[in-house]
Specification:
This protein has 160 residues and is α+β, with helices and mostly antiparallel strands.
Length: 160
């Protein structure tokens, strides 16, 4: 175990991971509890408590969220060398947006990092019927990282 002077700032670790990555993996389940995971491009509101993405309402994860809004999320660098990877794990509820929530989401999505990565700003017409896509939000209730100083798979709550 390292002493406190050498302990990594796990909040900063979480912020760095969330800032450096454009994709998150959504873990959803259908009404019967069958799990499904999907990687999606995302943009985050300040504080990483609201994460936004665009998907087809016909996608499996979108249909799952309509039936069961609870989801898990993980963001990680899949290119990290073996034994050095770290991730941010999240518990959230997800929903398709409309009305004022849609307007707020479009102010966040795709974010400056998303624009630099090649994403384009969206308008309500891009994410409302008859468009094939919708804007979704995950309202994150908790963030965790694995603490390297504790037993394997020991989650530690963080506030990025």
């Amino acid at each position: 175990m390292t002493d406190s002077a050498q302990r990594p700032d796990l909040d900063a670790v979480a912020r760095a991971i969330l800032d450096a990555n454009h994709y998150m993996t959504l873990g959803t389940a259908d009404a019967d509890g069958r799990p499904w995971v999907s990687p999606v491009f995302f943009a985050a509101a300040p504080g990483w408590r609201e994460l936004y993405w665009i998907s087809s309402p016909e996608a499996t994860h979108s249909r799952n969220l309509a039936a069961r809004p609870e989801l898990s999320i993980v963001v990680f660098d899949s290119q990290a060398p073996v034994g050095t990877g770290q991730a941010v794990y999240m518990a959230a509820t997800g929903a398709e947006l409309s009305g004022a929530e849609l307007d707020r989401g479009l102010q966040v999505y795709p974010g400056e990092a998303g624009l630099r990565a090649g994403a384009r700003p969206k308008t309500p017409e891009d994410v409302l019927a008859p468009s094939l896509y919708r804007l979704y939000r995950a309202a994150v209730s908790q963030h965790w990282v694995l603490d390297p100083d504790l037993a394997p798979d020991q989650r530690t709550t963080v506030s990025p």
